[in-house]
Specification:
160 residues; 2 domains; alpha+beta; 5 helices; Dimeric_a/b-barrel; Monooxy_af470; DUF4188 domain-containing protein
Length: 160
Amino acid sequence: MQGLNLGRFTSSNSQDVTVFMLGLRINSIMRPDAYLPVMKAYLNMVKYLENHPETGFLGQETWLKRTTVSIQYWESPQALQDFASNSSAPHMQAWRNFAQQASPHVGLWHETYQVPATARECIYFNMPAFGLGKARGLEAIGKETATAKRRMSRWKNPNK
């Protein structure tokens, strides 16, 4: 089972993270002219971000269905805002195109969360690198990270 991290792992990073959830909903499946350009623009943005680590983009997971969901991890809200407003990055033009051609056949949404290191915990059991662990790094769970309570309090007192 190549690519699996066998055993229990958690995120090894003590830094805050910005979680950006976004997606689209295909309201009219018979109108690919409305949703395919949006999907293509999104995939182009992800490719750009993966090739430009200086943006502060840390990684993402995406599920493609009628309601598409992507969870992205960013260094900070400012890094996300800087990307969104950068006229030489692909987001600005894609957003203008969507706003000009907006139709009821496709919907967009997003939510942004600033997550302090002291307010999160995660566990990955027999999983490939995924989510926050993939974005920020993994470490095997040991005595000091064996429970969710210990993982949650870990960064409140990092010397403990």
